[in-house]
Amino acid sequence: MRSGKRNVTGALLLLASGLPFGANAASVETFVLAVGGQAGFSCATFAPATPALSFFINASVAVPTNGLAPCGIAGGYRTTTAATAGPISDTLSLNTSFNSLPVNTFVGSASANAQSGSVGAEAHGTFTGDSNGLIVEGTTSYGLFNESLTASSPNVTLSSPGTVRFTFTVDGNLSIAGPLPYASSADVELNYSLNSGPSYVLMRAQATSSGAVPFATSGTGAPLTGFTAVPGSFSGTGAIDTFELPFVWGSAFDLKFGVLASAHPATGSTADINFASTATLTGIQLFSNGQPVTDFTLVSGSGTPYDANGVHTVPEPSTSASMLGGLAAVAAVRNRRSAR
User: Which of 47, 108, 216, 319 is buried most, with the most CB atoms less than 10 Å from its CB?
Assistant: First the structure.
C-alpha cells in the first residue's frame, strides 16, 4: 500500500523480532521483503508485515491483512535468526507485472547481512505505470545484532554505575532517479538500544525525489562528517557516536543495533539504497564517575572480541586454517634458510 509513501518517514517495513533479546543474549537477525501487485477493495485493510514496530522508529508500510497471494500481491518476505555471532545473510528479488492499460511493473531486490558488531542492508526498486492507493510495491531489508557485554577494570569497583558511548562507522549511499514531481522514498535508518531502554536513532537519511536534497541527520544532532547530500542522492563514510548511556560495571548489558533499508519508488522512478558494506562498531568508550576509563576489558556473550577499537571479527574457520597454513609455510622457509 502506498499510504506510507508521502509520509516523511517513508520506509517500507519493520522489524519482526522473536529473538530472545534480553540480558546475556547474543543473536543476529536479517529480514528481506520484495512485493508488487494490485490489491482489490476486498483487501483494503493493511497492517505491518512483521509485528514489532518499536525498534526502527520511522518505518511504517503495510501489506494486506488477508495475505499477499489472496490479494494478488506477488513476492514475499522472511526473517532469518540465529543465536550465534553469525555471520548470516539473505536476499530476495522480484520481477512482476500487473494491471492492464497501462501495465504496471515492479522490479526490485532486498538483501541483508548480520554478525556480532556489524550489519548491512540494501534495497532496490523500479516502478512503472499508473499509481493508486491499493497498489503494493517496494523492497525492505534489515540486518540486526544483539550482543551481551560485561565490562571490568582493575581501577573500578564492581557493581558501581558507569556510562558507555559507542562509535559506529557507516558506509553507503542512497538515491532516487525519475521524473518530477512524483514523490518516491529511498530510506536508511540505523538504530540502537541498551538493555530494555528505548530505541535511539544513530543516523537517518531519506531521499524523496531526484530534484530535492535528501534529509539526513545523526541522532545526537552532531554533523554527519564524511557524507555528501546533493539533489537526489546521499553518500559517504563516517564515524557516528551514540548517546552516553548507563550501565553497571561487572554486570552484563545488552547492545542492540540494526540498519534498515527501504526502497519505495514512484511512477517511472528507481529507488536505490546500498548500506550493505556494513555499519560496524569501531569504538567503545567507558566512563566511571564521569571520567574516562582506558584500562578496561570486555567479555561478550557471543565470544566475539571487543575492546576500545570496537569489534574484532574472528576469521571463519577456513580463513583461519589458510592463515595458519601460510604462517607454517613461511616458518618452514625460514628454517631451511637458517639451516643453509
Answer: 108
Name the amino acid, one letter, at 79: T
Averages of pLDDT over each 10 residues, the chain, 340 residues: 34 36 71 94 84 66 87 94 94 96 95 97 95 92 95 96 98 94 90 93 95 95 96 97 97 96 94 93 97 96 96 59 44 45
Rounded CA-CA distance 322/38 in Å is 52
Which three-class secondary structure string do you get for 278-308?
EEEEEEEEEEECCEEECCCEEEECCCCCEEC
336: helix, coil or strand? Answer: helix
Task: Determine the pLDDT at residue 180.
Answer: 83
Q: Residue written as cell 569497583?
A: 157
* H-run or E-run covering 322: helix 317-339
Scan for cell 528507481, then name that residue.
270
Burial class (CB in 10 A: 0-12, 13-18, 19+), 66: middle
CA 249 to CA 161: how far, in whole Å? Answer: 6
